[in-house]
# Entry
Amino acid sequence: MNAQTQTPEGTPSSSDAAARTIPATPDADEVAGAPRSSRFDFRGRPELWLVPLVFVVVVLAWEYGTKILDVKEYVLPPPSTILEALRDQLSSDMFWTHFWVTTQEAMIGFAIGASAAMVLGTAISQIGLVEKTLMPYIVAFQTVPKVALAPLFVVWFGFGLTSKIVMAAVISFFPMLINVIEGIRSADADRIQMLKVFGAGRWQIFRKVQMPSAMPFIFAGIDIGIVFAILGAVVGEFIGAQEGLGYLLLQTNYNFDIPGMFAVLVVLSLMGLFAHAVVRIIQRRVTFWAEANRVIGA
# Structure
């Protein structure tokens, strides 16, 4: 017996026809895994070969340009010399001590800054009185050069990790705060109104609509904030420290070890790139439903 319901003329019923015309909605796993097939599509994503190509061209031009122009190593060392200095530093236990100190300062400071930005940004976006009361002070504080605050933090919190953690938290706080506020406010007003019609409370609207809409913005702020946290830790070490990559950078400068300075700068750049890559991976897993143009680095 035919499973479909037939009309007197022998054609499928309208309900069956409508069911066949409605495409199946992909589940989360399918949506999350959709870009994987084109991840290494060199035609559709030319940046996959342009990025390494630009790197190779710049390094070769730098290497042979310094030799052809006879540039002194204490002015601009070639990449081969920097690579040797980097290899020497990586083989030193003292370097890894400095690396771990800066990593601790940046990550703890970032965690504090991100937590404060989430709490305060949510409060400002949800409560108008909080915004009107606190935003003028937050904006005024942001206009103060953070480098000018570093000596004060050293005086208040000492030469240890605490002053650098505070510096990292302060520098990374503001961009994350703004992204949290704007992300929550970007929620679709029609969806919010529909939930209100069905009797949804403020917490349900926040959880079902506002927070999912804010996630791409929040991750964009996190991507900026985590790099700023590394910058803040290094700036704090410049002012007063006995350990850390910023301190090591100053030591190589005092010793006129220019290749060593560049080697430390390379390590700091790699730290930023690694942090950015981790944020990208987490964002693609968490906000798999977001449009590609709203995902950082997509």
Q: What stands out?
A: The mean pLDDT is 80. The CA atoms of residues 192 and 205 lie 6 Å apart.
